[in-house]
Specification:
With about 100 residues, the protein is of the alpha+beta class. The chain is about 45% helix and about 25% strand. It has a single domain, classed as 2-Layer Sandwich (Alpha-Beta Plaits), CATH 3.30.70. It has three helices and four strands.
Length: about 100
C-alpha cells in the first residue's frame, strides 16, 4: 500500500474546476522535477460520485503535487471548500495518466 491524499469537495465546488487546478499543480511540479519524471511518478484519480480527487503521494513528485494543489485550492476556493487527509492507496500508485 502507498500513501495518498484524498481531497473531498463541498457540493458548491465545481469538480471540473478542481481537476483543472490539479492539472495546473502537475504542470508546476514539472518546473521542479522535469516533465519526464512527473509523467512517470505523478498519479491521481477523480471520483465524481463522492466528489473527491485522490493524489498518489508515495514519491517526491506526488508529495510536491499535493503541496502545490493544496495551496492552489485554498487560494481558488477557500479553505472551507474542501477537506484533505492522508489515506492508503490499496493498489499501489494511482494509475491515471495525464493527457496533454
Amino acid at each position: 500500500m502507498s500513501e495518498a491524499y484524498r481531497y473531498k469537495f463541498r457540493q458548491d465546488v465545481d469538480l471540473h474546476e478542481a481537476e483543472s487546478t490539479l492539472l495546473l499543480s502537475i504542470l508546476a511540479a514539472e518546473g521542479l522535477f522535469g516533465a519526464a519524471r512527473v509523467r512517470m511518478d505523478a498519479g491521481y484519480a477523480v471520483d465524481g460520485s463522492i466528489r473527491a480527487i485522490v493524489v498518489d503521494a508515495s514519491t517526491d513528485v506526488g508529495q510536491a503535487v499535493c503541496s502545490i494543489l493544496t495551496a492552489f485550492l485554498q487560494r481558488e476556493f477557500g479553505g472551507s471548500a474542501f477537506g484533505v487527509r492522508a489515506v492508503e492507496a490499496q493498489d499501489g500508485p494511482i494509475a491515471r495518466e495525464c493527457e496533454r
